[in-house]
Specification:
The chain is α+β, with helices and mostly antiparallel strands. The protein is built from six helices and eleven strands.
């Protein structure tokens, strides 16, 4: 999220090859009146001499979004708010996997939680266990105080029926479905 003037807005950003997903997400938010009609386009930028392609869009800025921003950002640091379990639906889990998940060959799914504290990561793990009976483990990323959540492949039979109805088909690979 970003603060802009007196309000806050969401920013969605993906690699150019994921334009289909960004267009889908844009259409969902557009239908509810949260963003402009202008369709996201693939853009490029030069990073260390290499061209990278990306697509992104922002929602409108609303002061009514400030409570969300303030719940997730404390003193400039990203945190997991205590109320998140209430909103942790199958759609939210699917979007989390599409945005920050990745298939690790023969191991399972990694959920990037690098920017959260260990206690926040443990809280997210407890939600996965309590709401969906999904066993996970926490792994250090290699950076100081940085952790990821792993969902072992043995848990895919529980996870797939929960998230597949909400997953954009281009991300089936993140569940090893292609």
């Amino acid at each position: 999220m970003e603060r802009d003037g007196l309000g806050s807005r969401f920013v969605f950003y993906q690699k150019g090859e994921h334009l289909g997903y960004i267009l889908w997400l844009h259409s969902v938010l557009l239908k509810h009146g949260y963003c402009r009609e202008n369709l996201p386009q693939i853009q490029s930028r030069l990073v260390y001499g290499k061209v990278h392609y990306y697509c992104r869009f922002r929602t409108f800025t609303y002061s009514s979004f400030n409570w969300i921003y303030e719940a997730f950002y404390k003193k400039g640091k990203k945190v997991v708010p205590s109320f998140i379990e209430e909103y942790f639906s199958p759609v939210v889990l699917a979007i989390w996997i599409m945005d920050d998940g990745g298939w690790i060959k023969n191991r399972g799914i990694k959920l990037c939680t690098d920017s959260f504290s260990l206690s926040d990561v443990k809280y997210l793990c407890s939600i996965l266990k309590n709401k969906y009976d999904i066993e996970v483990s926490i792994h250090k990323t290699g950076a100081i105080d940085s952790y990821n959540i792993y969902i072992p492949k043995k848990n895919l039979p529980k996870l797939i029926p929960i998230v597949k109805p909400h997953l954009h088909p281009m991300f089936y690979y993140k569940l090893n479905l292609i």
